[in-house]
Prior knowledge:
Elements (H helix, E strand, L loop, with lengths): L5 H12 L3 E7 L5 E6 L7 H16 L7 E4 L4 H15 L1 H4 L3 E10 L5 E5 L6 E8 L4 H12 L3 E10 L18 H9 L3 E6 H7 L6 H14 L4
Helix pairs in contact: 1-2, 2-3
Amino acid sequence: MSNLPQYKKDFLKSAIDGNILKFGSFLLKSGRTSPYFFNAGDFYRADLLNSIATAYALTIDSLPVEYDIIFGPAYKGIPLATAATIKLGQINPDKYSKIEYSFDRKEAKDHGEGGNIVGAPLRGKKVLIVDDVITAGTAKREAIAKIEKEGGIVAGIVVALDRMEKLPAKDGDDSKPGPSALGELKKEYNLPIFAILTLDDIIEGIKGLVGEEDIKRTEEYREKYKATD
Length: 229
């Protein structure tokens, strides 16, 4: 029996039922072959979007950080931050009815209101970044730079999934221990980073939901590529 909190169980079941969390054989950009694949961009149906919004909102509500604005980096982060903001206002109107959100443009607009940011102004505000995953960390570094350029203070990052996976070794030897992209980002910026689900959560929560062979292969992948952080 899984000991995961109910909102994690609900989110995991929704991701599997909606074919957002898939099991099989998937070639990653790193060149590794993963036994599972998660794509937050597939939460495009109303019931699925409600599921991920609820999971983000309940995760954010439990965080030990203060923030004024929820920020979604373009492009996948935009609907995630928007949906999470709406859901926060619904689950606790007294606390979150005035919470604000923003997102960035990939290219600055030179007419109308102009600028790189759409939504709440960031200057002097504590900003919580919401996105799907941290793969290499490049997109999050860009988001942090944009927020700081606008005068905002990054309070933390929340992602849907922490793969807990070490970065590929520069010399190609993946037998060596190593940190994850999430761990490196946390260390580089001294930022708190949180996830709705970790790979450990997935392995604990999928028992009874997927086949034994998929569970075994996912456990073996974790053992082979688990990060040191």
